[in-house]
Design goal:
Structural class: alpha+beta
CATH architecture of the largest domain: 2-Layer Sandwich
Number of strands: 22
Oligomer: single chain
Low-confidence stretches: none
Mean pLDDT: 94
Bound molecules: serine, zinc ion
Number of helices: 15
Number of domains: 3
Shape: elongated
CATH superfamily of the largest domain: Bira Bifunctional Protein, Domain 2
CATH topology of the largest domain: BirA Bifunctional Protein, domain 2
Largest sheet: 9 strands, mixed
Distance between the termini: 74 Å
Strand content: 25-35%
Length: 497
C-alpha cells in the first residue's frame, strides 16, 4: 500500500519571514528520522519528500507505506509544526488537503466504480489507485482508513459472491404423509380465509387462519417458551437509525427496508399546500410530501435489534443469567427481493422472536435445548417433513458480509419444510447464536467482565402455516389430533354473496 499526500498547513503569520530555511530543513529532517518512523518496523513509515514555505503556508509532500499512513503522518506533523512555530508566536489555523492518492494491490477483474470521498478511481494491472477528495475534518474522522476497510470488505464480499451461500444439512425428519398437493395460499383465498390487503405483500387474515396462528403461538408457549423459562416483552416496531447503526443493519439494509419518515414540522400551514393539492386532484402529491418529511428509520425488520436499547450501557449481574425473553407484539416488514408469493413470501409478516442472553457456553447449550423442543413440536403437533441446515448467519448476510462463521459456534440454523405442491423447501424459522455481536454493539457488560453472548430465534407464523397447510391441507380431520385440539373449532364469521 502506498500513500501520497500533498497538504498545506495554514499559519497565522508569515512563516517565511519568521523562520529561516535551514531551521525548517532541520525540523523536517528530525521528523523524518523520528516522528514519522515511530511505531513502524525498521525501514518503514512515512517521509516528508518535499517542504515548501510560501508566506503563511507550509506545503508538505508526504509519502508513506501502510505502517504510518500519510494522513496519520500529517496529523503528527501538524502537532510538531505547531510546537515549533509556537516558539515564533505563529499558530496553525488549519490544513488544506490538495491531493491524496492511495495505491494498493487489487484483484484483476474486480472493478470499483464509485467510493465515497473518492474523486477518481483507476485500475491498472493488479493495482487500484484512489484519488481522494478529503479535508482536514475527514482526516480527523479517519475517513481514509474507513475507505480502505470498505475496500477490504468489498473484496471479501466479491470472493463470497461467486460461491453458493453456505448450506449444510444437520438433521432431516422422517418422510411424512401429505394430504394436499396444491398451493395453500390459493386454497385459503378460495375459502375466504385470507385476502390480499391494500399493501404490497400484505394480507388480511380472517378468523380461521388467525385462530391457527394463535394455536401455533400457544403450542410454542406451552411446549417451549414456558418450560424453558421465557418471559414476554414488548419490543418497539419502529426502528430508528441509532439502533441499526449499533446492530450493523445500517451497513446494508437499504434495499430491503420499509422506511419511516416524520413530518419536518407539525405546523398545519406547512402542510396546507399538500392538503389542498389532494383536495382538488384526488391524487397524493408525492413530490410535495417528499420535501416535507425526514427519514428517521424503518419498520421492524429483524425484530430483536430494538430490544437491545433496554440493556444499552448496562452492567448485568452474572447471577441473573441466562436471560430469556420473547416478543410477539407486532409485524415485521421487508421489501422482498425474491418475488412475493402468497403467505410464503410477504412484505409484512408476523413472527415470535425469541432472545436468550448468557455466557458463551450457556448460549450455545441453550440453542441445543431450543432445537430439541422445536423437534418435538414438529413431530408431535405438526407432524411435518422438515430439516435443519447450517447456513450463512442471518446477521452476516444482512450486514452484507456473507462470510461464514468459521468455528461453527456462531451462526444460524435454518428450518426448512418441503412444499409438496412445488417440491421446494421453504425456510420457516431459524435458531441463531449471534456471539457477542449485540452486547458489543449496544455496550452491555457482565459484572464479572466475562464475555456476554446472545442468540435469537424467529418463528414466522405465516411460514409455519404455509409449511403445515401445504403438507396437511385445510381439512381439519387430516391434521394431527394434538394440533387439531390445540386449534379447536374454526370460526365461521363471513359469508359473501
Ligand atoms: N432476528 C433474526 C432474523 O431476523 C431472527 O428472527 O432472522
Ligand atoms: Zn433476532
Amino acid at each position: 500500500m502506498e500513500f501520497l499526500l500533498k497538504a498545506d498547513l495554514k499559519c497565522s503569520g508569515r512563516v517565511s519571514e519568521a523562520v529561516s530555511a535551514s531551521e525548517i530543513e532541520e525540523l523536517v529532517k528530525h521528523c523524518n528520522i523520528e516522528l514519522l518512523k515511530k511505531g513502524a518496523p525498521p525501514g518503514c513509515g512515512a517521509e516528508i519528500v518535499g517542504c515548501k514555505v510560501a508566506g503563511e503556508k507550509i506545503g508538505l509532500n508526504i509519502v508513506s507505506d501502510r505502517f504510518i499512513r500519510a494522513h496519520d503522518a500529517l496529523l503528527r506533523l501538524k502537532n510538531e509544526f505547531a510546537k515549533f512555530l509556537g516558539q515564533h508566536r505563529i499558530g496553525i489555523r488549519g490544513m488544506e488537503i490538495e491531493d491524496y492518492e492511495i495505491a494498493m494491490e487489487w484483484e484483476e477483474g474486480l472493478e470499483i466504480k464509485k467510493l465515497p470521498f473518492v474523486r477518481e478511481i483507476k485500475h491498472e494491472e493488479g493495482r487500484i489507485k484512489l484519488f481522494l477528495d478529503v479535508d482536514e475534518f475527514s482526516l480527523e474522522k479517519r475517513i481514509p482508513d474507513r475507505i480502505i476497510r470498505l475496500l477490504a470488505d468489498k473484496r471479501e464480499a466479491a470472493r463470497w459472491k461467486g460461491k453458493k451461500e453456505h448450506w449444510e444439512l444437520l438433521f432431516e425428519s422422517n418422510k411424512k404423509r401429505f394430504f394436499f398437493d396444491k398451493d395453500p395460499t390459493e386454497e385459503l383465498i378460495k375459502r375466504d380465509w385470507i385476502k390480499h390487503a391494500a399493501g404490497r405483500g400484505q394480507w388480511i387474515y380472517g378468523p380461521q387462519l388467525t385462530k391457527i396462528f394463535r394455536a401455533f403461538e400457544r403450542v410454542l408457549f406451552d411446549n417451549l417458551l414456558k418450560p424453558l423459562g421465557y418471559e414476554e416483552m414488548i419490543f418497539p416496531k419502529f426502528v430508528p437509525w441509532a439502533v441499526w447503526k449499533r446492530s450493523g443493519h445500517a451497513k446494508g439494509i437499504y434495499p430491503e427496508a420499509y422506511y419511516v419518515c416524520t413530518p419536518k414540522t407539525r405546523d398545519p400551514e406547512f402542510w396546507e399546500e399538500v392538503m389542498d393539492y389532494y383536495k382538488v386532484t384526488n391524487e397524493i402529491p408525492l413530490n410535495m410530501i417528499k420535501e416535507r418529511i425526514e427519514p428517521v428509520g424503518g419498520m421492524c425488520y429483524a425484530q430483536c435489534p430494538p430490544f437491545w436499547v433496554f440493556l444499552q450501557g448496562k452492567i448485568i449481574p452474572d447471577e441473573t443469567l441466562p436471560i430469556k425473553i420473547f416478543d410477539r407484539s407486532g409485524t415485521s416488514h421487508r421489501y422482498e427481493s425474491g418475488g412475493l408469493h402468497g403467505i410464503e413470501r410477504l412484505d409484512e409478516f408476523h413472527r415470535v422472536e425469541i432472545v436468550w442472553i448468557g455466557k458463551k457456553e450457556h448460549v450455545i447449550e441453550h440453542a441445543k435445548q431450543l432445537r430439541e423442543k422445536y423437534r418435538r413440536i414438529f413431530e408431535e403437533f405438526l407432524d411435518i417433513e422438515w430439516r435443519e441446515a447450517w447456513v450463512t448467519p442471518w446477521f452476516m448476510a444482512q450486514e452484507g458480509k456473507a462470510g461464514m462463521a468459521e468455528l461453527k459456534e456462531i451462526g444460524t440454523i435454518d428450518y426448512e419444510a418441503i412444499l409438496p405442491y412445488s417440491g421446494k423447501w421453504l425456510e420457516f424459522q431459524n435458531v441463531s447464536v449471534n456471539g457477542d455481536k449485540y452486547p458489543k454493539g449496544f455496550s452491555v457488560k457482565l459484572q464479572s467482565g466475562e464475555d456476554l453472548w446472545s442468540g435469537c430465534s424467529g418463528v414466522g407464523l405465516e411460514r409455519w402455516a404455509a409449511a403445515f397447510l401445504a403438507q396437511k391441507g385445510l381439512e381439519q380431520d387430516k391434521w394431527p389430533a394434538k394440533f387439531r385440539s390445540a386449534v379447536g373449532e374454526l370460526p365461521e364469521v363471513f359469508r359473501f354473496l
